[in-house]
Every structure is written in structure tokens, then in C-alpha cells.
Backbone:
């Protein structure tokens, strides 16, 4: 019998779920229920049989979308559902679909619908927490190969990235990727333009991100000479973004999706943490990666995600982390 993984959360969470998917695929067929962007970034993954799109805030919102999705799941009998996203709605969905075994964290909002509750371990990286759903309360540490996420750009993504870099005159063996964006306002470190200038003598710069990062990417690229900068924000699919990050010598980014793409592609990463901290379990996983942040602030961390505005109005957790400090950390990473 097949297993179903339910992961309809943020894009980074989808990426961090791939080790769980890989483990379950050793035992049988695996289908994944995800949002459309989540399903897109899981394309080409050899561990997945079917990707089922559930647009809970779009076409599938409300009772009619819920019932339609239940019908889809009932056509594919599952032995177990692994609730990587632990909302009440996800729990109800797996129950309504008639899935006999429903496994999730004991702290999840939807845990009343689970047949097995796995202890949530806040001191572990989130990939390890998710992977523990496949092992119940296994106390043994996982080996690095088990917990590293994986993404699988294909030939189409490689061709798109080849052309984009060639048209911009970027040497694809000597550029640094910058990921200035985040869905959360206080996670956006403000000194990427300064960092780009510090790096420009030695490296080309490629900005990565979504449609909301185009303006900040233009600001970074406009100050650099032609052939030394490319703003790819909003121009690439999710997997093509992973492909271009995978070619970078390193990524500097916030506590947001690009660092998880870098982890999946094995790209050394300097992750900038402001209102959040690596101890929450969402730090970079690629070899030679480091985290940067201001220490000694009583107000840090202030939020599990990072609020849109600083609750105290000073935003010291980001404003007091200089471009020269991040530059030095990056040079250490590259050495």
C-alpha cells in the first residue's frame, strides 16, 4: 500500500520534507499533497509517484474544494498519511479520505485526528523532526546524508539557466547568489547592495527570488558594471531558481526559501538571521554553511516566523549586522 505525505505549508517546508519522502519511498509508493508551488518544486523527484495539488486558499478553498480533494484521495487507497503540515484541516482531510493510519506531531493543531502522535523535538533541525515521523520516537541521531534535502532540476531548467547567464555575460563558475527577499518584513536584511559592492571586485552577482524581489534585485544590479550582475528575481521557475543557486560559489540569503534551495543543491550558504535564530531548526544544511546574526539582544528572537515590523521599532537585529561582517563570514566560508 502507498503512503501519502501532506505538506501544504511554506515552500521552504516543502523542500525540508524531501528527506521524509525519500525514506518512505524505500518502503513503497509515495504520493504528496501540496500547494501548486510546492508540487512544482517537487517535479522530477524520483521518490514521488504522484503530486496532488491542493490549493487550500485558491481553487480548492471552502467545503467544495475540501470534498473534491477527499474524492481524489479516496481513488488512491493509502495505508498511512504523514501529516508534515499539522493543521486541523489537514487532519480532517486525511480522516475523511479514509486513511487508516494518520501520523503527525503531538503538538500539531490537528493532532486529535491522528492515530499516532510523534513527539515534536524542538532541539532538532526541522528536516530531522519531519524525518522522525517515519521512525516514531527514534532517539538515534540521523546521519547527514539522511537529512539533506534534495531537488531535481531537469534539462529544461538547465537550458533556461544556461541562456540567462550567457545573455548576461555571467561566468557560471564565479558568481555569488544573493537572496534579499522574504515573506516576512523583519527578515529582510537591508545591506545587500553594500555587500554586492564589496564582492564585485572578485565575483559576479546573481540575485535570486520571486516577483516580490524584482525591485530590490534591480537596486543591487544597477550599481554594478555590465556583465557583472544579473537580477533573475521573478524570471525563473522554482526549479530553475534551484538550478542557478546550485551553480553559485555560495548563496547569501535571509531565513527564507532560497537558503533551503541552496541546502538541497549543496551550495555553501551564509544565512542571515534577525528576528529568528538557527535554534528554531531552519538553518542551512549544505556543507561549509554558516549563520550570521547580532548577539546580545534581549529581544532576539522575537517571533517564530518574524513579524512584518519590529515590535520595538528599532530593528537592531538586522540594522546592527554590517555588510563587512557578512562579507568576512562569506570569505571564511569560501576558504
Residues:
Amino acid at each position: 500500500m502507498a503512503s501519502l505525505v501532506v505538506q501544504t505549508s511554506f515552500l521552504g517546508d516543502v523542500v525540508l520534507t524531501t528527506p521524509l519522502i525519500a525514506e518512505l519511498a524505500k518502503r513503497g509508493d509515495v504520493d504528496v499533497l501540496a500547494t501548486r508551488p510546492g508540487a512544482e518544486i517537487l517535479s522530477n523527484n524520483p521518490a514521488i509517484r504522484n503530486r496532488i495539488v491542493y490549493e487550500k486558499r485558491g481553487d480548492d478553498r471552502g467545503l467544495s474544494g475540501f470534498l473534491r480533494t477527499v474524492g481524489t484521495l479516496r481513488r488512491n487507497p493509502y495505508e498511512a498519511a504523514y501529516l508534515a503540515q499539522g493543521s486541523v484541516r489537514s487532519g480532517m482531510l486525511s480522516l475523511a479520505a479514509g486513511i487508516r493510519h494518520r501520523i503527525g506531531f503531538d503538538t500539531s493543531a490537528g493532532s486529535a485526528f491522528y492515530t499516532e502522535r510523534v513527539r515534536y523535538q524542538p532541539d532538532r533541525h526541522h528536516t530531522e523532526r519531519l524525518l522522525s515521523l517515519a521512525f516514531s520516537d527514534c532517539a538515534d541521531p540521523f546521519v547527514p546524508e539522511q537529512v539533506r534535502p534534495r531537488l531535481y532540476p531537469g534539462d529544461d531548467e538547465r537550458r533556461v539557466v544556461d541562456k540567462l547567464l550567457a545573455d548576461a555575460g555571467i561566468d557560471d563558475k564565479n558568481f555569488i547568489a544573493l537572496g534579499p527577499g522574504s515573506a516576512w518584513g523583519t527578515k529582510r536584511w537591508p545591506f545587500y547592495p553594500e555587500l554586492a559592492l564589496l564582492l564585485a571586485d572578485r565575483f559576479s552577482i546573481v540575485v535570486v527570488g520571486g516577483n516580490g524581489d524584482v525591485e530590490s534585485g534591480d537596486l543591487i544590479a544597477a550599481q554594478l558594471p555590465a556583465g557583472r550582475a544579473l537580477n533573475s528575481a521573478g524570471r525563473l521557475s522554482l526549479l530553475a531558481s534551484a538550478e542557478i543557486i546550485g551553480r553559485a560559489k555560495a548563496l547569501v540569503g535571509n531565513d527564507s526559501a532560497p537558503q533551503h534551495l541552496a541546502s538541497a543543491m549543496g551550495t555553501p550558504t551564509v544565512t542571515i538571521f534577525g528576528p529568528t535564530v538557527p535554534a528554531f531548526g531552519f538553518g542551512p544544511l549544505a556543507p561549509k554553511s554558516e549563520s550570521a546574526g547580532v548577539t546580545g539582544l534581549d529581544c532576539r528572537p522575537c517571533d517564530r516566523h518574524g513579524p512584518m515590523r519590529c515590535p520595538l521599532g528599532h530593528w537592531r537585529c538586522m540594522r546592527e549586522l554590517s555588510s563587512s561582517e557578512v562579507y568576512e563570514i562569506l570569505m571564511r566560508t569560501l576558504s
In short: The chain has two domains: 2-147, 155-334. The chain has a mean pLDDT of 95.
